[in-house]
Specification:
EC 1.1.1.81, 12 strands, seven-stranded parallel β-sheet, binds 3-hydroxypyruvic acid, five-stranded parallel β-sheet, binds 1,4-dihydronicotinamide adenine dinucleotide, NAD
């Protein structure tokens, strides 16, 4: 079996040695421009079109991340990016759920314990104990209840918060109230105090966190965007922060990355920013997932993780 690997920044040698340990019989190589040699499987992130165009014999392509929006948007512009009929797989969890849990739980507790208010008081040298918030006033609403959203929901249930999720179809996570479809989005938003976004980027989800949705949240709500920048209408967020509807926001992803220096988000006192690091690809766990998927595919089985190209995730 031949495997080709391409990632613009990852250490290819490290990945290839991890893969080789899991798949000792495979011939694995880093793909370089001009390589048209045989390949059964391709592992890619931002692949150049010439890597996959016209390839025959390819059994599957693996995206080296959870979100496949960048590859699908390139595919729209250049249908040769993926050979027709070849399935595309993405990473399911592979260590990202734990990172998302850490990020979401720490930030929810930061707001719940009013550390944002105490930081503001500290800057004024003010010693002023504030009233506690009650968990019952701190409903967490998670947009997107898939592999990552589901795990984040479970961890917040463990901290005793009322948790609800919104997805395409109803979910059955223990202790989590499930809402589904556009017709239940308002009911989901109503009374949500912390809105956490873990949706995929598709035409249906772009701009979903806008004034209309934010105005339906509880007063003094918070927004935590962990998915993609295009989900959030940044001007609407700033308006809601300045009107007092929103108390704070923490953003990991932006419609333009790196976030330009002139963005007002950098300077807003109630916006916290991380540079798209909420959950990164962990090589060893990713390789385990990819290898086991390849083994299943080679046996003619139907492993999970295949992207529905029509649906867009
Ligand atoms: N900031 C970061 O570092 C990272 C961000 N991500 C983002 O997180 C996203 C989610 O990842 P997973 O949980 O693995 O995806 P997933 O495919 O397992 O879950 C997606 C969820 O969104 C829901 N959904 C999709 N379209 C919908 C619609 N139109 N209406 C209602 N619900 C809809 C699905 O029902 C599902 O519950 C990725 O697509 C990626 O963009 C992923 C990893 C790291
Ligand atoms: O895996 C993804 O989709 C990411 O955003 C990685 O940072």
């Amino acid at each position: 079996m031949d495997i080709i690997f391409y990632h613009p920044t990852f250490d290819a040698n490290h990945w290839i040695s991890l893969l080789q340990r899991q798949l000792p019989q495979a011939r694995i190589r880093e793909w370089r421009s001009g390589d048209n040699g045989p390949a059964d499987y391709a592992l890619v992130w931002h692949p150049p079109v010439e890597m996959l165009r016209g390839r025959t014999g390819l059994k599957a392509v693996f995206a080296l991340g959870a979100g496949v929006d960048s590859i699908l948007s390139k595919l729209k512009k250049d249908p040769d990016l993926l050979p027709a009929g070849v399935p595309l797989f993405r990473l399911e969890d592979t260590g990202m759920a734990e990172q998302m849990q850490e990020y979401a739980v720490s930030q929810v507790l930061h707001w719940f314990r009013r550390f944002d208010d105490y930081q503001a008081l500290k800057l004024q040298a003010k010693w002023e104990p504030l009233a506690d918030y009650e968990r019952e006033d701190f409903t967490i609403g998670i947009l997107g209840a898939g592999v990552l959203g589901g795990k984040v929901a479970e961890s917040l249930v463990g901290w005793g918060f009322p948790v609800r999720c919104w997805s395409r179809s109803h979910k059955n996570y223990s202790g989590v109230k499930s809402f589904a479809g556009r017709e239940e989005l308002s009911a989901f938003a109503n009374n949500t105090r912390v809105l956490i976004n873990l949706l995929p980027n598709t035409p249906e989800t772009v701009g979903i966190i806008n004034s209309e949705l934010v105005n339906q949240l509880a007063d003094n709500a918070y927004v935590l965007n962990l998915a993609r920048g295009v989900h959030l209408v940044e001007d609407d967020l700033l308006t809601a922060l300045d009107s007092g509807k929103l108390k704070g926001a923490m953003l990991d992803v932006f419609s333009r990355e790196p976030l330009p220096a002139e963005s007002p988000l950098w300077r807003h006192p109630r916006v916290a920013i991380t540079p798209h690091v909420a959950a990164v690809t962990r090589p060893a766990q990713a390789v385990e997932f990819i290898s086991s998927t390849i083994i299943q595919l080679d046996k003619g089985q139907h492993p999970t993780g295949q992207v529905d190209l029509q649906r867009g995730y």
